[in-house]
């Protein structure tokens, strides 16, 4: 019976009737488990998931779900908004807005790791979708992960074409830096150095010959740092040093 069921399953699979193919492969495995049929079963199950997911894509329904999500968000009905935006991600899986909008809901629901994950999904689909970076930074900020928040802001600046969102990005970055300063207020220089020495990334930046030259220059001319901030790579490293307390600006 195992072989008979397996043959029927294969026939259904050739007809692209994956549901029946899976049913008969399962029956074959119930009669007598074999690696060959198990492989066919797993492949058919995977193919059906892909087929069903593709068949569900519908731009019109996606837009309806987005509009419903927006309405529920305005009503502060976060769970209903999550449900609507989740529907949008299924109807339009390549549209970053569904994931980014759902992330905004997760932030309201204090589900920050889920918000970060959705922002990553949005960025994966469109690396220039700045709203996703801003929401990811907001989630990290609320979690008090200030270094991560600052890093995300740096990434956002790199992808912000024409600096259209520069003010909003810099404002989020400023808030994170101020929060770090406040958290470390009263820390002695010895405590700062001990903490820095335990951070491999900061140690690596301090050992970089280019950064050493910049820091040496800044000692005699603090304003020179502003010029170096125009270079995205240097800017990111300087921000990390500021965040770590190595460079103290305006304090």
Stretches where pLDDT is under 50 for at least 5 consecutive residues are none
- The CATH architecture category of the largest domain equals Alpha Horseshoe
Following the backbone from N to C, one meets helices and strands in this order, namely: HHHHHHHHHHHHHHH
Radius of gyration: 26 Å
Q: What is the count of helical runs?
A: 15
Oligomer: single chain
Number of strands: 0
Q: What's the CATH topology name of the largest domain?
A: Serine Threonine Protein Phosphatase 5, Tetratricopeptide repeat
3D shape: elongated
Description:
The protein starts with a helix and ends in a 7-residue tail after the last helix. The protein has 15 helices and no strands. The longest helix has 22 residues. The chain folds into three domains: 55 residues, Tetratricopeptide repeat domain (Serine Threonine Protein Phosphatase 5, Tetratricopeptide repeat, Alpha Horseshoe); 123 residues, Tetratricopeptide repeat domain (Serine Threonine Protein Phosphatase 5, Tetratricopeptide repeat, Alpha Horseshoe), CATH 1.25.40.10; 56 residues, Orthogonal Bundle (434 Repressor (Amino-terminal Domain)), CATH 1.10.260. It is an all-alpha fold and 251 residues long.
């Amino acid at each position: 019976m195992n072989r008979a069921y397996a043959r029927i399953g294969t026939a259904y699979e050739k007809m692209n009737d994956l549901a029946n193919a899976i049913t008969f492969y399962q029956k074959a495995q119930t009669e007598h488990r074999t690696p060959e049929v198990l492989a066919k079963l797993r492949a058919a199950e995977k193919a059906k998931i892909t087929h069903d997911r593709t068949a569900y894509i519908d731009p019109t329904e996606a837009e309806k779900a987005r509009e419903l999500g927006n309405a529920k968000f305005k009503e502060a009905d976060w769970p209903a908004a999550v449900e609507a935006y989740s529907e949008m991600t299924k109807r339009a899986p390549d549209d970053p807005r569904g994931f980014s909008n759902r992330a905004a809901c997760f932030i309201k629901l204090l589900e920050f790791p889920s918000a970060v994950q959705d922002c990553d999904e949005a960025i994966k689909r469109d690396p220039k979708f700045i709203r996703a970076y801003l929401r990811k930074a907001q989630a990290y900020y609320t979690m008090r992960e200030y270094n991560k928040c600052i890093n995300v802001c740096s990434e956002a600046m790199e992808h912000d074409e024409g600096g259209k969102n520069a003010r909003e990005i810099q404002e989020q970055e400023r808030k994170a830096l101020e929060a770090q300063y406040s958290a470390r207020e009263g820390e002695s220089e010895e405590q700062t150095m001990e903490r820095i020495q335990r951070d491999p990334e900061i140690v690596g930046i301090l050992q970089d010959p280019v950064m050493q030259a910049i820091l040496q220059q800044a000692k005699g001319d603090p304003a020179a740092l502003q010029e170096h901030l125009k270079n995205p790579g240097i800017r990111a490293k300087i921000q990390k040093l500021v965040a770590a307390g190595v460079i103290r600006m305006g304090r």
